[in-house]
């Protein structure tokens, strides 16, 4: 039995070069809970999650590690059930399942390394690359010059689809930004918008979406909280624009519920919140069975491996944040970020998830 002999956690806090507006919040750092699991046969697996300033590494140390030390590393799903069973009172809450996701990803990383295969290949996929869409417009600035530069840089990299941040300024400003984006990328590009749960009331949401829908919006993401699915239905009915949410859902069962209630048109799935590899795949497959597509939430290195297993990924591709703009700072923990070639993410063929971790950087940002 290849038992789990050691679990180490690191809470990496990486400063943003400038404060970032995410809806009404001001963010100064990105924080990542990194997990390193070692087996008694010497295999080492790495996983992580977005901790968003929460003490997820401590949760892993205090309530997960004691449960799984000495257990068989061959069965990530059994480890997941064990952790959730011991923490039943919080078993499907995002803070706990984010930590669990990091553990699950590390165990799957070990499984790939044990087999000498990438996760994608180990689970049966044959794709070597996958399209991406670029997220633009986090920094509004005083005009659209910065936005134009972001869009043109992405186009030069062969990226064909986009998502733009909305909701932080007045509705007309967002309409102007959508017009700029659509003009530069042409009629055939897929464009989505991310509202960061800022719309508040249904009336405000309808007003804003009606103002931008002429630019052929693939979906409006997170117009409200995930718990406000009834409002999402009403927004879709009033505007005709598809809605998307789900990145905070903490299990595939939760994903199934919002689909069954027809609250979502494009399901958002984050493997680093939902519980890891199997839960991601279950949610994606349930969406497919119900005739729905799904979209990923950043973490491109992880999601490239998993999305290659599915047939119903949003046609725009994987969500991607260009390291050039220092919005998601995960690349600061790596020797080399995900390779993008002609608008596609190149799926690593290295064993496991193929993430080239820089442990010196992980430790430095965790000190």
Describe this structure in words.
The protein is α/β, with parallel strands linked by helices. The chain folds into 2 domains: 4-116 and 358-366, Enolase-like, N-terminal domain (Enolase-like, domain 1); 122-357, TIM Barrel (Alpha-Beta Barrel), CATH 3.20.20.120. 38% of the residues lie in helices and 24% in strands. Strands 4, 5, 6, 7, 8, 9, 10, 11, 13 and 14 form a 10-stranded mixed sheet that branches. A 3-stranded antiparallel sheet has the order 1-2-3. Strands 12-15 form a two-stranded antiparallel sheet. Strand 13 (340-341) and strand 14 (344-346) form a beta hairpin. The longest helix has 22 residues, at 94-115.
In summary, what is this structure?
The protein is α/β, with parallel strands linked by helices and 367 residues long. Helix content is 38%, strand content 24%.
Relevant terms:
367 residues, alpha/beta, Enolase-like, domain 1, TIM Barrel, 10-stranded mixed beta sheet
The CATH homologous superfamily of the largest domain is termed Enolase-like C-terminal domain
CATH architectural name of the largest domain: Alpha-Beta Barrel
Rg is 20 Å
By DSSP (H or I, 4+ residues per run), the number of helices equals 13
Task: For the record, give the distance between the C-alpha atoms at the N and C termini, rounded to a whole number.
Answer: 34 Å
How many domains?
A: 2
CATH fold type of the largest domain:
TIM Barrel
The percent of residues in helical segments reads 25-40%
Segments where pLDDT lies below 50 for 5+ residues?
A: none
Structural class: alpha/beta
The count of β-strands is: 15
Q: Indicate the proportion of strand residues.
A: 15-25%
Query: What's the average pLDDT?
Result: 94
The string of secondary-structure elements, in order, is: EEEHHHHEHEHEHEHEHEHHEHEEEEEH
Report the sheet with the most strands, covering strand number, pairing sense and barrel closure: 10 strands, mixed
User: What is the assembly state of the chains in this entry?
Assistant: single chain
Structural shape:
globular
CATH class type of the largest domain? Alpha Beta
């Amino acid at each position: 039995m290849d038992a789990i002999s050691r679990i180490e956690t690191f809470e990496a806090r990486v400063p943003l070069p400038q404060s970032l507006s995410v809806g009404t919040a001001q963010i100064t750092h990105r924080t990542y809970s990194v997990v390193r699991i070692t087996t008694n046969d010497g295999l080492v697996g790495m996983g992580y999650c977005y901790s968003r300033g929460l003490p997820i590494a401590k949760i892993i140390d205090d309530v997960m590690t004691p449960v799984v030390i000495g257990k068989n590393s061959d069965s990530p799903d059994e480890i997941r059930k064990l952790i959730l069973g011991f923490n039943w009172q919080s078993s499907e809450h995002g803070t706990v399942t984010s930590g669990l996701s990091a553990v699950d990803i590390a165990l799957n990383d070990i499984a790939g390394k044990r087999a000498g295969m990438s996760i994608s290949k180990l689970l049966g996929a044959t794709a070597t690359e996958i399209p991406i869409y670029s997220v633009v417009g986090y920094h509004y600035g005083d005009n659209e010059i910065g936005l134009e530069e972001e869009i043109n840089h992405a186009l030069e990299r062969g990226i064909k689809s986009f998502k733009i941040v909305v909701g932080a300024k007045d509705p007309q400003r967002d309409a102007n930004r959508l017009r700029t984006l659509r003009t530069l990328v042409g009629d055939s590009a897929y464009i989505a918008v991310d509202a960061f749960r800022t719309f508040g009331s249904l009336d405000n949401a309808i007003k804003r979406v009606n103002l931008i829908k002429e630019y052929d919006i693939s979906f409006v993401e997170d117009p409200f909280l995930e718990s406000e699915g009834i409002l999402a239905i009403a927004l879709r009915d009033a505007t005709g624009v598809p809605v998307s949410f789900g990145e905070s859902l903490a299990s595939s069962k939760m994903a199934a519920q919002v689909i069954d209630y027809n609250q979502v048109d494009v399901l958002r799935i984050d493997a680093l919140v939902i519980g890891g590899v199997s839960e991601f795949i279950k949610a994606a497959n349930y969406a497919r069975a119900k005739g729905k597509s799904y979209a990923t939430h950043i973490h491109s290195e992880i999601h490239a491996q998993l999305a290659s297993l599915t047939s119903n990924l949003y046609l725009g591709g994987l969500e991607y944040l260009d390291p050039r703009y220092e919005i998601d700072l995960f690349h600061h923990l790596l020797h080399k970020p995900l390779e993008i070639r002609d608008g596609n993410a190149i799926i690593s063929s290295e064993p496991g998830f193929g993430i080239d971790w820089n442990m010196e950087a992980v430790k430095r940002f965790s000190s």
